[in-house]
Amino acid sequence: MTQTKILLDEKDLPQQWYNVLADLPSPPAPPLNPQTRQPLRPEDLSPIFPMALIEQEVSTKRWIDIPEEVREIYRLWRPTPLFRAHRLEAALGTPARIYYKYEGTSPAGSHKPNTAIPQAYYNKQAGVKRLATETGAGQWGTALALACSFYGLECMVYMVKVSYSQKPYRRSLMEVWGATVVPSPSDRTNAGRQMLARDPHSPGSLGMAISEAVEDAATRPDSNYALGSVLNHVLLHQTVIGLEAKKQLALAGEYPDYVIGCCGGGSNFAGLSFPFVYDKIHGKKTRIIAVEPAACPTLTRGRYTYDFGDTAALTPLVKMYTLGHDFVPPGIHAGGLRYHGDSPLVSQLYHEGLIEAKAPHQRSVFEAAVLFARTEGILPAPETAHAIRATVDAAIECREAGSSKAILFCLSGHGHFDLTAYDDYLSGKLEDFDYTAEDLAKGLATVPKIETG
Description:
With 453 residues, this protein is α/β, with parallel strands linked by helices.
């Protein structure tokens, strides 16, 4: 009988994270201090991050040990299962073999605890009492609330206002785990008050919420900031996904021809793909595809340049694909993908041609999500449904070409808190969004002009 679930034992849990910085074909562009515009020094980050995470951010070591205290909590849900999507394959009539790594088995229902746990651990070790953060759809805020509850830390979450309204039960879950959650932009910070003065009805954005959380952390001696995506150390922690998936595919006698993940800031995409990027750098022919919304087309239509990670320009300048730090995407239901920029590491890999990017529309994404739910039984989060859309498209390509290839994607979280999105899709209320070149030029108009060499 052909296997459906490929499982690893707890003893197979990775003991180290994989750091792609060790294998990049060219060195990354240095982040810049937002005030001096000079290369950032590690001590510049010390007001908001513990030194252990700063060291991981700049490290070029290929393997970084996972503390046993972190692995102990990982064991609550890791290793996560790898599934063969037999029923989806049959529905599509494809000879392709579809596998998905399911991260929705974590207590928070997504991949985000993979980095929330170590971030809370290192902050606790450094004597920090409180963490401030932002969240879009709520997956990251939920994960950090969980991690803070394990380590006895206070948790303050600035949640993008449109998602705060769309997804009230994620807010409830954060509060169950002890977090304080406010809609962003808020009147609690100078950045938030300035944004509300410009637009009292702003739906918010991740860039705005990041500004509030960074200001909060930087102005309180008991607090640090925690970020759920984009930065090198965050993507590092997520590589447990791809490292486990490699072992599981080997047990099935497989190696993927496609590796696919949804991409907002880049954390789950990097977590699945970076261990396979290592192989591609060393000669493998795998197609590695990042999938973003057409409503927030950072990689596919953004500019590769230095920009701020937040709206108020408080964060370091990093070289990335960006739509401009003032860009405010529409209130689509895939709130975790509504970010104006992308991880510098993901951006560099895309710029150098090691990965690809696609940007489907919202309705086609939900069409694929409903097909997946009706065949495989799992309701996917709107974010991960973007990866499903690209997976379905790849499987159809295989069907039309008569080609039997292995496709791996990351099912980064379940959609149990996203039923409003499915209600809108099923009732025909969901809209697609497109941008003209003029629309995108407005967001890019305020990107700093920095010579990049």
